[in-house]
Amino acid sequence: MARRFAVFLVPLLLWGCAELPVPPEEREAPSAPPAAEAGGAFRLAGRIGVKHDGESFSGSLRWRHNAEDDEIFILSPLGQGIARIVRNAGGVALETAEGRTYHAEDVETLTEEVLGWRLPARGLQYWVAGRAAPDTPAEGATGSDQRLLHLNQGGWRIEYQGYRTVQGVVLPAKLEMLAEDRRLEVRLVIDSWVLP
């Protein structure tokens, strides 16, 4: 497992040697209409922190999501692309800064095999919108404003630590996700949203 995590950390240490081309970050478009349903299409940019089995990583994340596909960039703290994850009808591929490409049926399996930790993308597409995934049992608590305070779903506990209004929609700005076995913690601070 330490070897797999090292596969993820080595590109971070070799910033100057190789990097993935990363598209420019899109800024929020206040005039665009808000998404009709949480969990729908979105683009977001933010900062990610991962702690797993005594190892840690911090950097940034850019995610373009819709029902048919996803494109997720994981970047170094200096903004250089170190992993690109693409999901579409053909499955999931992860490309590293060294030009290696790995394939799997889902993001969770692929990130665990290549990076050594599971990115819970299946649930995360809903959690970042402040709601539970519709296909899995969940327990949660809301505050007086009816916003989620925390959520337990799919082997994860999600703590909502801040919200912001984007294009007239209140969306999470900071989440902390802790895996059931407590060996993996993922923190996400969302700096910008673009809704269709």
Description:
This protein is mostly beta strands. The protein is 14% helix and 46% strand. It has one domain (2-194): outer membrane lipoprotein receptor (LolB), chain A, CATH 2.50.20.10. It has helices at 2-13, 107-115, 121-127, and strands at residues 42-52, 55-65, 70-75, 81-88, 91-96, 101-104, 138-142, 148-153, 156-166, 169-179, 184-194. The chain has an eleven-stranded antiparallel β-sheet. The longest helix has 12 residues, at 2-13. It is globular.
Structural class: mainly beta
Rg estimate, integer Å:
16 Å
The residue fraction in helices comes out at 10-25%
Strands across the major sheet, in which order? 6-5-4-3-2-1-11-10-9-8-7
Task: Report the top-level CATH class.
Answer: Mainly Beta
How is the main sheet built? 11 strands, antiparallel
What spatial form do the alpha-carbon principal axes imply? globular
**Total number of domains:** 1
Number of strand segments: 11
Second CATH tier, the architecture:
Clam
Q: Return the string of H and E elements.
A: HEEEEEEHHEEEEE
Distance between the termini: 39 Å
Q: CATH homologous superfamily name?
A: Lipoprotein localisation LolA/LolB/LppX
